[in-house]
Design brief:
By secondary structure, the protein is mostly beta strands. The protein has one helix spanning 2-17, and strands spanning 22-28, 32-37, 42-45, 56-61, 68-76, 80-88, 95-103, 125-126, 131-132, 142-145, 151-157, 163-171. The protein has a six-stranded antiparallel β-sheet with strand order 3-4-1-6-11-8, with no helix packed on it. It has a six-stranded antiparallel β-sheet with strand order 2-5-12-7-10-9, with no helix packed on it. The radius of gyration is 17 Å and the shape is globular.
Amino acid sequence: MKRILIAAAFAAAAALMAADDARIDLLAKSGLVCNSVSEGVTASPALWMKGREDQRLIVTVQSSPEWKQHSVTFTPKADGQIEVIIMGNRKDKDILYDSVTVKGATLNNGTFEELNAKGLPAGWNLKQEAFRTNGAASGKNCVQTNHDKRATQRISVKGGQAVEIGFMVKAAQP
């Protein structure tokens, strides 16, 4: 019986460790409705935002050692700006992102190749430690994020017009 309990404890711990670790939050002043996600991706409202849950869409997926393409399609309820927050679900595990694309709105420099005067990806708000100049899915640059180390950009959207965000993701190797 003791061995069964120990095995069950290890299985539960392994399931928690395998939880979705890549995360993109979409933050709006008006509501967002998720239309679809690619295989393996989940999207849910921010339940902690009581009465405003639909103003933040949390998109998660499990990263892997290889680059994989994923997407989410959503519709904003009103015209405005959406903050795209590229991050991880944990602060102790880094995630790499590259080739971020948007259909139905305009995102600048989704390949992270164009640099500003500070040597960071133009159009993005991020700190130096979130920028990586090797190991990209395409080109040279990508971002390396976790829950506390993020890359953000605002996009303008039209109410009722679907927006698709595509992205490449993989687990950062220590």
